[in-house]
Design brief:
The protein has 149 residues and is of the alpha/beta class. It has three helices and eight strands; from the N terminus they run H-E-H-E-E-E-E-H-E-E-E.
Length: 149
């Protein structure tokens, strides 16, 4: 079921074939709350959004969000409910996003932070944040040489 009225910025039949390599399509309960996280915590640019889907870009990566209601007639749809656990066991990493800024933004939005910004032994300063739909995002930059934990 689509909620969008009018034409999208780019028709799906044009956008789909333009995708290359690995992409992410995250199913979210609602687009607007997800966009607040994407913009404020991830620092993502919203290339397109409507009530059904959004296209985002940050740090050279591009990904999509689709609202659960768009999957009602999809075979995957029966596995997705408003109470579904999302992304358990998957870390979505966005390299190049300042973890301290992301942490501050996440706290302002009242989100769960699994691990605050920490310099790790593998040379990255990272923060683990749970988005409003339950996906785990790891935002990182190269550490400044402090000992890892």
């Amino acid at each position: 079921m689509k909620l969008r009225t009018g034409d999208p910025l780019i028709p799906a039949r044009v956008y789909g074939p333009s995708l290359k390599g690995l992409t992410l399509n995250l199913l979210v309960r609602e687009i607007e709350p997800a966009l607040a996280f994407q913009r404020n915590v991830l620092g993502a640019e919203v290339l397109y959004s409507d009530p059904d889907m959004a296209i985002l870009r940050a740090q050279g990566a591009e990904w999509m969000l689709h609202a659960d209601h768009t999957y009602l007639d999809h075979p995957f749809g029966k596995h997705v409910t408003s109470q579904s656990t999302r992304g358990v066991g998957v870390e979505i990493r966005l390299h190049g996003r300042d973890p301290d800024l992301a942490h501050e933004s996440a706290l302002k939005l009242g989100l769960s932070v699994i691990s605050p910004p920490t310099d790790k032994g593998h040379g990255l300063r990272e923060v683990y944040v749970i988005d409003p739909d339950g996906y785990t995002w790891v935002l990182d930059v190269p550490s400044d040489g402090r000992p890892g934990s």
